[in-house]
């Protein structure tokens, strides 16, 4: 009876799981930040210190959970995107929202002295969070376009409003003056009265801040050292005599054979026997070199292959990926470890287990083994502690999400299956 009650409680606890195969957007918003910014002396209409602080808090959140592929912020809010393939925390809304907002809030307090060194924090800030699921990539693009359009509308209004206030107009009269005006009217007001071109205002103010995780790229493996050149055998007098006798001159009156190394190209047409032997030697050298290179790959000596799980647009791996030039190295490494020959290596959470499972590279053979996406729980910090490369660098850009430029440059953000399955 007790077990059934506990199972019911556990099932009820997991009942807030969001729909699978849908994009999840977590939006964090400051609570009563109008009062907070006024009491802490924020510059109006935009305080770059506060915007940089918000961006750093968002970067901390994205660094902690590698499943987050994108974030967009403006004013006192930030939106984070989880791809449809992310299983983070069982896609539970309460778990996701509380985890994101708690780290964001603590980061805001932690980094406050860095961005406001001369302004003490009078009281702790407060943020709320909500999780919304979207069924398609187009809905996600529409959402971020909506948030950026909201950033533009609010910033244009606030720029005009605070310019009027700074010019001696009361706040009530400024509101009346801007009521019912269009964006063209506001731009004309700024240009004609305050000599301000709105397009010259920093993009961070007009378009917000975008953080996105760059697509992981393969680390180029250093080329193997060139094989040692095999010296060609110098012919003996017997070889020279055979060459002369076999040249078609029965009296042995053929051209004398010079001493020294014989080039297969130089002697191939003059002395067939010597040319054939030298030619075989010339063919033997690259064959031996190739065999030596294969042995080096099989023994994993001086060969570092970093697989890249990124497919090309036609569905085939790109050069340098698992299906490209590095495929031979990976296959040879697998053969050396006994894969496919009945020698099954143990799997688990021991040292190197995550890296071997992610990239298939043997332990201790490369400085940077793999570009991993996650450790199974969506955390990138654990992999960083083990010396792995992060799952794509977090880049920052005040780009225009309304147009197609950003999405065309970063198709992996909304591509299905970009993260682990």
Describe the structure.
It is a single chain. This protein is of the alpha+beta class. The protein has three domains: 17-213, tRNA(His) guanylyltransferase (Thg1) (Alpha-Beta Plaits), CATH 3.30.70; 217-222 and 305-370, no CATH class; 237-298, no CATH class. The chain has helices at 2-13, 33-39, 48-64, 93-110, 112-115, 137-166, 171-178, 183-194, 203-207, 237-245, 264-267, 272-298, 327-336, 353-359, 381-385, 405-409, and strands at 23-30, 70-74, 77-82, 127-134, 209-213, 394-397. The protein has a six-stranded antiparallel sheet with strand order 4-1-3-2-5-6, with helices on both faces. α3 crosses α4 and α6 (137-166) packs parallel to α8.
Write the layout of secondary structure elements.
Layout: H1 2-13, E1 23-30, H2 33-39, H3 48-64, E2 70-74, E3 77-82, H4 93-110, H5 112-115, E4 127-134, H6 137-166, H7 171-178, H8 183-194, H9 203-207, E5 209-213, H10 237-245, H11 264-267, H12 272-298, H13 327-336, H14 353-359, H15 381-385, E6 394-397, H16 405-409
Percent helix among the residues? 40-55%
The number of distinct β-strands equals: 6
The number of helical elements comes to 16
* Count of spatially separate domains: 3
**CATH-defined fold name of the largest domain:** Alpha-Beta Plaits
Rg from C-alpha positions?
34 Å
Taking all residues together, what is the mean pLDDT?
71
Question: How would you write the strand order of the largest sheet?
Answer: 4-1-3-2-5-6
Q: What would you call the structural class?
A: alpha+beta
Largest sheet: 6 strands, antiparallel
What's the CATH first level of the largest domain? Alpha Beta
* Overall body shape: globular
The sequence of SSEs as H and E is HEHHEEHHEHHHHEHHHHHHEH
Strand content: 5-15%
CATH superfamily of the largest domain: tRNA(His) guanylyltransferase (Thg1)
Biased composition (Basic and acidic residues): 310-319
GO molecular function: GTP binding; magnesium ion binding; tRNA guanylyltransferase activity
Cofactor: Mg(2+)
Biased composition (Pro residues): 221-230
């Amino acid at each position: 009876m007790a077990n059934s009650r506990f199972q019911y409680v556990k099932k009820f606890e997991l009942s807030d799981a969001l729909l699978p195969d849908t994009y999840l957007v977590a939006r964090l918003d400051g609570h009563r930040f109008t009062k907070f910014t006024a009491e802490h002396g924020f510059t109006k209409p935009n305080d770059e210190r506060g915007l940089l602080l918000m961006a750093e808090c968002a970067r901390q959140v994205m660094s902690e959970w590698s499943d987050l592929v994108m974030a967009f912020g403006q004013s006192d809010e930030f939106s984070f995107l989880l791809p449809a393939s992310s299983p983070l925390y069982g896609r539970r809304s309460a778990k996701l929202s509380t985890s994101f907002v708690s780290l964001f809030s603590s980061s805001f307090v932690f980094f406050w002295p860095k961005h406001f060194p001369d302004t003490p924090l009078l009281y702790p800030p407060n943020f709320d969070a909500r999780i919304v699921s979207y069924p398609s990539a187009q809905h996600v693009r529409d959402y971020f376009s909506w948030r950026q359009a909201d950033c533009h509308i609010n910033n244009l209004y606030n720029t005009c409003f605070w310019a009027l206030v700074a010019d001696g107009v009361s706040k009530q009269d400024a509101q009346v003056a801007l009521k019912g005006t269009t964006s063209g009217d506001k731009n004309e007001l700024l240009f004609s009265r305050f000599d301000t071109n709105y397009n010259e205002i920093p993009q961070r103010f007009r378009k917000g801040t975008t953080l996105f995780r760059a697509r992981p790229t393969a680390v180029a493996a250093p080329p193997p050292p060139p094989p040692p050149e095999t010296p060609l055998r110098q012919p003996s007098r017997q070889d020279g005599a055979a060459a002369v006798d076999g040249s078609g001159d029965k009296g042995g009156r053929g051209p004398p054979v010079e001493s020294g190394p014989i080039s297969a190209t130089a002697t191939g047409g003059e002395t067939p026997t010597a040319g054939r032997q030298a030619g075989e030697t010339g063919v033997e050298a690259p064959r031996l070199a190739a065999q030596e290179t294969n042995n080096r790959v099989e023994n994993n000596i001086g060969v570092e292959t970093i697989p890249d799980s990124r497919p090309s647009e036609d569905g085939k791996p790109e050069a340098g990926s698992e299906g490209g030039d590095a495929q031979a190295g990976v296959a040879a490494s697998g053969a050396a470890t006994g894969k496919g020959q009945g020698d099954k290596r143990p799997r688990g959470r021991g040292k190197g287990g995550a890296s071997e499972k992610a990239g298939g590279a043997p332990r201790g053979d490369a400085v940077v083994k793999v570009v991993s996406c996650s450790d199974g729980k969506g955390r990138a910090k654990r992999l960083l502690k083990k010396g792995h490369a992060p799952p794509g660098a977090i880049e920052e850009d005040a780009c225009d999400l309304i147009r197609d430029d950003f999405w065309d440059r970063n198709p992996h953000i909304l591509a299905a299956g970009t993260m682990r399955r």
